[in-house]
Amino acid sequence: MPPSPIHLCQCPSCQRDMPHPDQDRHRQMNLLISRLDEQQRRWYAALESTRLGHGGDEQIARITGLDPKTIRRGRRELASDLRERPAERVRAPGAGRPRAEKKRPEDRSGPARSRRAGNGR
């Protein structure tokens, strides 16, 4: 899996021209997140959000670019000790995009074509 692009922190402190003490930490957080898969990103962001306390979801969302709902989901998953998350898979069974062969119609000359042919068009 190639690393995703590194997000630039959008917190007010990082947006100023002057350096601030957390700027390097925010850059390192985004570097780490760029190397994690989607559930690991969610859990890491949730852990950081929990550490910050009230308002942490929104602050971590500004820093990482993740949606606050995604961070809340990660906190719920961590609170349940990841019981509902399969250890051997990134996505739950049946989740994600359907396979290409499932997207294609079974038979291109199926009932839709025969109806059109019968209309005399």
Task: Give the strand tally.
Answer: 0
Task: Specify the helix fraction band.
Answer: 40-55%
Structural class based on helices, strands and sheet pairing? mainly alpha
How many strands, what sense, and barrel or not for the largest sheet?
A: none
Shape: globular
Arithmetic mean of pLDDT? 83
Molecular structure report:
With 121 residues, the protein is mainly alpha-helical. It has a domain at 1-81. The chain is 53% helix and 0% strand. The protein has seven helices and no strands. The chain has helices at 12-15, 23-34, 38-52, 56-64, 68-79, 100-103, 111-118.
Write the layout of secondary structure elements.
Blueprint: H1 12-15, H2 23-34, H3 38-52, H4 56-64, H5 68-79, H6 100-103, H7 111-118
Helix pairs in contact: 3-4, 3-5, 4-5
Short description:
With 121 residues, the protein is mainly α. The protein has helices spanning 12-15, 23-34, 38-52, 56-64, 68-79, 100-103, 111-118.
Keywords:
121 residues, mainly alpha, 7 helices, globular
